């Protein structure tokens, strides 16, 4: 399996993913893991329209994504996995799917809660997300915050998040 990037992005596939990440990484398949989108033909069509020509798109439920990844269904393709929540990637790791690093693009700005803390312009983390990111960190997943491929990543995102959530 050739997973080039795992990305948390509230909007799944949109301009930044389609015009910057996919070409930069030479992605052949974007795998969106989102139960709501997988079960909604209108959302699936919107994601298809946002995906560049020549790039395959799979919009799957969490269960189907784990099944397909475990079966190595995309074995010879360069894959980018995108989900709305870090919880999705914890599910993958807990099911034996390797996630060496996780790029945090857009997170938490759409559905802010009372316990949300702004970490960067594009990332707001609530208590539940912080707990999941801590579990990922403890399982050896490198966390980076990066909106665009050319951006400098927030060095040691986990520590920055911990520090900002304390203040």
Automatic annotation (TrEMBL):
Transmembrane segments: none annotated. Residues 1-167 form the PTS EIIB type-4 domain. InterPro entries: PTS_IIB_sorbose-sp, PTS_IIB_sorbose-sp_sf. GO terms for biological process: phosphoenolpyruvate-dependent sugar phosphotransferase system. One of its GO terms (cellular component) is cytoplasm. PROSITE patterns: PTS_EIIB_TYPE_4. It holds the Pfam family PTSIIB_sorb. Keywords: Cytoplasm, Kinase, Phosphotransferase system, Sugar transport, Transferase, Transport. GO terms for molecular function: kinase activity; protein-N(PI)-phosphohistidine-sugar phosphotransferase activity. Its main location: cytoplasm. It is found in: Cytoplasm. This is PTS mannose/fructose/sorbose transporter subunit IIB.
């Amino acid at each position: 399996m050739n997973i080039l990037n795992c990305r948390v992005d509230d909007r799944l596939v949109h301009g930044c993913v389609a015009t910057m990440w996919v070409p930069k990484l030479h992605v052949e398949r974007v795998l969106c893991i989102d139960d709501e989108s997988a079960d909604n033909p209108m959302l699936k069509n919107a994601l298809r329209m946002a995906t560049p020509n020549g790039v395959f798109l799979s919009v799957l439920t969490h269960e189907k994504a784990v099944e397909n990844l475990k079966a190595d269904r995309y074995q010879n393709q360069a894959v980018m996995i995108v989900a709305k929540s870090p919880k999705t990637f914890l599910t993958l790791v807990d099911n034996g799917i390797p996630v060496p690093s996780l790029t945090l693009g857009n997170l938490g700005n759409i559905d802010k809660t009372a316990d949300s803390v702004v970490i960067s312009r594009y990332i707001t983390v609530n208590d539940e997300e912080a707990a999941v990111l801590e579990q990922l960190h403890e399982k050896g997943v490198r966390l980076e915050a990066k909106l665009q491929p050319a951006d400098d990543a927030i060095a040691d995102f986990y520590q920055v998040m911990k520090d900002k959530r304390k203040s």
